[in-house]
Design goal:
OB fold (Dihydrolipoamide Acetyltransferase, E2P); alpha+beta; five-stranded mixed barrel; single chain; about 45% strand; 5 strands
Length: about 120
């Protein structure tokens, strides 16, 4: 039995450890691991409609009124990101982005074969 024959302090430590492990497991299960842009570009169909996370430097951006697109380079490849909530970061900025991958996207008269629709960003 998990809690038999222990002092209150020992039982408290075991409960604390179990709570910590459970919380970390739930947290990590909800966060997609970063995927290289090269891997996504190699087989985009595998990721379409799924949430992915990428990080890198902004190489190009354009937008207006809080919405726009920007290109991110992670050292393995480049990918366009569509932002509706956060505006576009400046060129050279380092960002981490999470969102859903889509195909066949148009913005500002430009067509993008594959784009990441941003749901969260960190600088």
């Amino acid at each position: 039995m998990l809690f038999s024959g222990g002092t209150v302090e020992q039982i408290f430590r075991k409960l604390s450890l179990i709570t910590l492990v459970t919380a970390l497991t739930m947290l990590l299960a909800g966060c997609p691991t970063r995927t290289s842009i090269e891997r996504i570009n190699r087989d985009p169909g595998r990721y379409v409609g799924k949430e992915v996370a990428v990080a890198g430097h902004v190489t190009s951006s354009f937008g207006a009124l809080g919405t726009g697109v920007f290109e991110i380079d992670d050292g393995t490849g480049r990918m366009w990101v569509y932002s509706q909530r956060y505006g576009v970061p400046s060129n050279g900025a380092r960002v981490a982005v999470r969102g859903q991958l889509q195909q066949g996207f148009s913005f500002g008269g430009r067509n993008f074969a594959t784009i990441l629709r941003e749901s969260e960003r960190r600088h």
